């Protein structure tokens, strides 16, 4: 484990005069706090001794049923017995890695991939090998070649970690045909798939593409309430084949005894009594406005030679800067110009991404996003003049 140089700069990036396009915090200001408070108060008064007690290592039965209803929206048909609750999907990732990976094992990941997952894999001394992709996500031929190369070198591949919906950081969504192709290659080569889908219900344009898990029950699926409700509860889940789920519960019990009971009941209550689907629609409308503002500002202000992705959901745009620019070196000059972003190298385990930056549109309001992109474009232009 190592301290991220970027994190040190984030302390500075939180200053109010800086527009932060760096963080991935969901904007939860519009949640109906009064309703949530009275429902949670009622829950404590009627059920306090249970909701504040230790609970099941697998997670509470009622929320596991409700999670199956949530996953049904992504085309997944699952049994509550196959669901394990985790402290955010981040802990799900940790436990999956813990049960599968020994030092020196290989985890395959997209190019680029989620910085928090890379950190977890590395913390178990697994090696992260990125598979090349295109605008539709993982390239099935590159996947085949990468597996062949690693196996010829005697390496043990434990799984492919993938974020097919609105990838963090690239914003790319894998179309259905590509998902089927990637699953086909993995099945043929005996590679386990770990599908991470915290943004799945936050589609901003078309209807969401069904999850990979919807057609392949061997896929290990990670879900979360962090982006569709609120991250502070720290409730996510893992849906896994029975034998894997059993091992995950043992790992969960050794890590925490049980996932947070109070949070599970609070979320259960929210799902029971609030219009959670209406709230997700409201989030989608809000994020759509912000996404549109960012894409327009990029088109209006970025210098020639810059390109970026056009996400159809989630929180992130992935920018490729003109030749010769090093985003990491540029970051302090961005902070001086009062804009923060995440340099692309953070999303690779192998030093790629020097010319990339992740810009997020989830947290600042549209007016601030436009100012942030204008500042970002100025910083890039100044780099080109140097
Ligand atoms: N996976 C991805 C792709 C993410 O972007 C995040 C949060 N940024 C997580 C997992 C972890 O989310 P949480 O633990 O809050 O569920």
From TrEMBL:
Cofactor: pyridoxal 5'-phosphate
GO biological process: alpha-amino acid metabolic process
Coiled coil: none
GO molecular function: pyridoxal phosphate binding; transaminase activity
InterPro entries according to UniProt: Aminotransferase_I/II_large, Class-I_PLP-dep_aminotransf, PyrdxlP-dep_Trfase, PyrdxlP-dep_Trfase_major, PyrdxlP-dep_Trfase_small
Keywords of this entry: Aminotransferase, Pyridoxal phosphate, Transferase
Superkingdom of source: Bacteria
Pfam families (UniProt xref): Aminotran_1_2 (PF00155)
Ranges of residues in domain Aminotransferase class I/classII large: 42-324
PANTHER family documented for this protein: AMINOTRANSFERASE, KYNURENINE_ALPHA-AMINOADIPATE AMINOTRANSFERASE, MITOCHONDRIAL
Similarity comment text for this entry: Belongs to the class-I pyridoxal-phosphate-dependent aminotransferase family.
Subunit structure and binding partners: Homodimer.
The protein's name in its UniProt record: PLP-dependent aminotransferase family protein
Organism: Tessaracoccus antarcticus
Taxonomic path: Bacteria, Bacillati, Actinomycetota, Actinomycetes, Propionibacteriales
């Amino acid at each position: 484990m190592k301290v991220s140089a970027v994190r040190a700069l984030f302390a500075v990036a939180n200053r109010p005069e800086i527009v932060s396009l760096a963080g991935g915090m969901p904007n939860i200001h519009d949640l109906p706090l009064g309703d949530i408070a009275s429902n949670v108060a009622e829950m404590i008064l009627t059920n306090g001794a249970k909701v504040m007690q230790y609970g099941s290592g697998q997670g509470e039965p009622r929320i596991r049923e409700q999670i199956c209803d949530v996953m049904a929206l992504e085309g997944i048909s699952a049994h509550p017995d196959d669901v394990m609750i985790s402290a955010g999907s981040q802990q799900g990732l940790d436990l999956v890695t813990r049960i599968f990976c020994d030092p020196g094992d290989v985890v395959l990941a997209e190019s680029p991939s989620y910085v928090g997952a890379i950190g977890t894999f590395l913390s178990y001394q697994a090696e992260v090998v990125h598979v090349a992709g295109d605008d539709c996500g993982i390239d099935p031929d590159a996947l085949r070649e990468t597996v062949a190369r690693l196996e010829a070198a005697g390496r043990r591949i434990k799984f492919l970690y993938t974020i097919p919906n609105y990838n963090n950081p690239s914003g790319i969504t894998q179309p259905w045909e590509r998902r089927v192709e990637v699953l086909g290659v993995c099945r043929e080569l005996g590679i386990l798939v770990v599908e991470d889908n915290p943004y799945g219900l936050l589609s901003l344009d078309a209807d969401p593409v069904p999850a990979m898990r919807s057609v392949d029950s061997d896929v290990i699926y990670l879900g979360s309430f962090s982006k569709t409700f609120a991250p502070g509860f720290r409730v996510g889940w893992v849906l896994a084949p029975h034998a894997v789920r059993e091992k995950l519960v043992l790992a969960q019990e050794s890590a925490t005894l049980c996932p947070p009971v109070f949070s599970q009941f609070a979320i259960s209550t929210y799902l029971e009594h609030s219009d959670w689907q209406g709230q997700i629609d409201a989030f989608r409308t809000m994020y759509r406005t912000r996404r549109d503002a960012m894409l327009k500002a990029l088109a209006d202000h970025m210098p020639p030679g810059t390109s970026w992705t056009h996400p159809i959901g989630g929180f992130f745009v992935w920018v490729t800067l003109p030749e010769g620019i090093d985003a990491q070196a540029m970051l302090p000059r961005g902070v001086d110009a009062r804009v923060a972003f995440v340099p692309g190298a953070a999303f690779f385990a192998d030093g790629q991404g020097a010319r990339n930056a992740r810009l997020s549109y989830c947290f600042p309001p549209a007016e601030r996003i436009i100012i942030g992109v204008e500042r970002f474009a100025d910083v890039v232009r100044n780099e080109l003049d140097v």
